[in-house]
Amino acid sequence: MLRKPSKEGAAVAALFSPHSVWDEFPNAILIVDYSQQMVVYANPVAEVSLDLSSKLLEGMSLHDLFGHNPELFQMLEAIKTEEVASQRQDLILNSGPARADHDPINAHVVVGALNHPDLLLIEWFPLEQQLRSERDDRLVQQVEANKALMRNLAHEIKNPLGGIRGAAQLLEYELPDKTLHEYTQVIIKESDRLQSLVDRLLAPHRKAHIDDFLNIHEVLERVRSLVLAEFPNGLKIKRNYDISLPDLLGDKEALIQAVLNVVHNAAQALRTRIEQGDAEIELTTRVVRNVTISKQRYKLALDLHVIDNGPGIPDEIKDKIFFPLVSGKEGGSGLGLTLAQTYVQQNYGFIGCTSKPGTTDFQMQLPFRLKTEGKQ
């Protein structure tokens, strides 16, 4: 049920729009009129968190919004009656009648007083967001450490590998018995294979060419056509695009390779379902607001998902899939996802993954940046 704000409440609400300082906050913010038990202002992050527009939220009863939430209302009452400046607590924010079809929010909630007799502030951030941020930071550090190790190892291998190949060629030239060339060819071909592996380890560390804007859907369509050419039967790649997305500043070829590695990896994991004819990969694009990527805050970012209906990632490698030489498939090099992570990081983005039997979701987030600004 919506309450009509009083004249005073409407005047207060006007103070928070349309360009309030609260709009820039990274966490969800509600300003509530305690006397009327209703919302007078909601920032953009709160709109996203509650999946309700500010027009619907402003004037909404707290009980309609959060339902039976005694801990939250006790915090609000404590600010008003005990004259404390703020309280904080981990809470489950329940869904009231206005959000009956939404899940509760597990969040760290802060309630504080404002310089107005009836106004209180409610701020929260999902606890899973904090856990994910900490996990992502650890993953970035681990990936960077592994990349440095593999890069140094690749440099150490490169020179002696060239010597081995050259010696095998000279030996083949000097051998009088041509039937022995079979063995020198093994040395040469294996040297070439290892050289290719070393080149792949070193390639992503070259400077990215992030100098132009690109349409991410052109990247996805290129990847889609390449993968369907390899798997023409039994695999369906669905498009779920937000065509209103702005262009992205980035290295187009690097992003094509990154997305291709992820989608191709998904297709290979779907081989059994491809044989059955019901394999499916979904490419989804959306825009997200106020996101943190590698400890940098961005107002807008691309949220790209590659979702497959395969068997899921084995538990024993789930936390290691972006590490070099870790592979869940027989004969895999274990470099595809490592290179994808590197290419995306070069474009100021990040890749994460959630997986369970029947659904694996690779999520890429890439910030929308201005050409003249670099990181915002």
Strand order of the largest sheet: 2-1-5-4-3
Tell me how many strands there are: 12
Distance between the termini: 40 Å
Helical coverage, percent range: 40-55%
- Overall 3D geometry? elongated
Mean pLDDT: 80
Descriptive notes:
Helix 8 (216-230) runs parallel beside helix 9 (252-269). 42% of the residues lie in helices and 24% in strands. The strands form 3 sheets. A 5-stranded antiparallel β-sheet has the order 2-1-5-4-3, sandwiched between helices. A 5-stranded mixed β-sheet has the order 7-9-10-12-11, sandwiched between helices. With 376 residues, the protein is an alpha+beta fold. The longest helix has 48 residues, at 127-174. A hairpin with a 4-residue loop joins strand 1 and strand 2. Mean pLDDT is 80; it is low at 1-5.
Main traits of this protein?
12 strands; 24% strand; five-stranded antiparallel sheet; alpha+beta; 376 residues; disordered N terminus
Describe the protein's topology.
Layout: H1 7-15, E1 28-33, E2 38-42, H2 44-50, H3 54-57, H4 62-66, H5 70-81, E3 86-93, E4 105-113, E5 119-126, H6 127-174, H7 181-202, E6 212-214, H8 216-230, E7 235-240, E8 248-250, H9 252-269, H10 271-276, E9 279-293, E10 296-308, H11 336-346, E11 350-356, E12 359-367
Parallel strand pairs: 7-9
Antiparallel strand pairs: 1-2, 1-5, 3-4, 4-5, 6-8, 9-10, 10-12, 11-12
Helix pairs in contact: 6-7, 8-9, 9-11
